[in-house]
Amino acid sequence: MTTIGGKKREKIDRLAELAARDEERGVSLWQDAFRRLRRNPAAIIGAVILTIFVLVALIGPFLVPYGPTDTMGIREGLIKPGVIPGSSSEHWFGYDHQGRDVFSRMIVGARQTLLVGVVATLIGLAVGVLIGGVAGAAAGLGGRWGRWVDSTLMRFIDMLLALPSLLLAVSIAALLGPSLTTVMIAVGMVSVPVFARLLRGSMIAQSNSDYVLAATSLGVRKSKIAVAHVLPNSLAPVIVQATLTLATAIIEAAALSFLGLGNPDSATPEWGVMLADAQQYLGIRPELAIYPAVAIIITALGFTLLGESMREALDPKLRK
Q1: What CATH number has the domain bearing residue 130?
Q2: Is residue 12 situated within a structural domain?
Q3: pLDDT in tens, 42-52
Q4: How far apart are CA 293 and CA 308, in angstroms?
């Protein structure tokens, strides 16, 4: 009994020593969030989905069995009016209406979908952080000019928020003309108000922190405090929102392509374009619409699961 009790005391002392070391070393906000993410099943599922998606988008086009623009089905006489061959051992997803291998086009289309989602999110993030950062710094600086700058920028953001996101994206795409670049710009501009509002609110909340008061009392310029301290500490919710915006960007890009405002060259595989092309052949081969639709849903689900898990890990109010 004494030996067992001694072992328990040694184990408790060892755990206490490790805890003391962790407390002395300290854990950053992101380190603590990463620990929570590793224990969250939803975050793990989302990370697995996104890892597979990224690997398919980056490596898949080099491994596809057939060229995505090769009309082998027409060349072999398999495509006839009202007849589109389905899946087989050689063509897992069958042919499309132009005799192209659907599986190869799905794999290659993942890269285009990832490119559109990432670039559109980066455009919205860059413009939103610029506007929200200037507005948040101006509001924190105070004074007549600071309030005027903040009010002017926020009224512009309010005008963008007053328009439905899809209507705003369609309007921008219609003005610029159908192209892949147009889709990126249109979807990116839709997310600008969200990033700007979020960063501005976070910076205003940070401006009331003790470290801002301490830096101000030491004579540090307010502009330096805003740029060097308040802005970096306000980016965590914006980064989480960027992960969630990636999911909506992919869906909105697919919607614009479905409406005919995306890439006019249907030979270039992209899931939204493939979904739009399949509408004419739902009675013959509904799988042509199911494959890209399921891929879009699963990819958006992965971004959403990871984004929501990151928000729970970073926000103390949402931690379980």
Answers
A1: 1.10.3720.10
A2: no
A3: 888 988 998 99
A4: 22
Do the domain assignments include residue 193?
A: yes
How many structural domains compose the chain? Answer: 1
Q: What is the distance between the alpha carbons of residues 1 and 10, in angstroms, rounded to a whole number?
A: 14
pLDDT-based confidence at residue 315 (cuts at 50, 70, 90): low
Cα 296 to Cα 95: distance, rounded to the nearest angstrom? 20
Q: Does a structural domain hold residue 103?
A: yes
Residue 7 included in any domain: no
Distance (Å) of CA 174 to CA 37, 119, 122: 41, 19, 21
Cα–Cα dist 232/246, whole Å = 22
Three-class SS string for the chain?
A: CHHHHHHHHHHHHHHHHHHHHHHHHCCCHHHHHHHHHHCCHHHHHHHHHHHHHHHHHHHHHHCCCCCCCCCHHHHCCCCECCECCCCCCCCCCCECCCCCEHHHHHHHHHHHHHHHHHHHHHHHHHHHHHHHHHHHHHHHHCHHHHHHHHHHHHHHHHHHHHCCHHHHHHHHHHHHCCCHHHHHHHHHHHCHHHHHHHHHHHHHHHCCCHHHHHHHHCCCCHHHHHHHHHHHHCCHHHHHHHHHHHHHHHHHHHHHHHCCCCCCCCCCCCHHHHHHHHHHHCCCCCHHHHHHHHHHHHHHHHHHHHHHHHHHHHCHHHCC
Domain containing 166: what range? 54-61+98-318
| The token pair that represents 218 in the structure block | 């030491």
Enter the pTM of the model: 0.77
Number of C-beta neighbours around residue 100 at 10 A: 23
Q: What integer is the mean pLDDT of 14-24?
A: 51
Contacts of 130 (CB under 8 A, 6+ apart): none
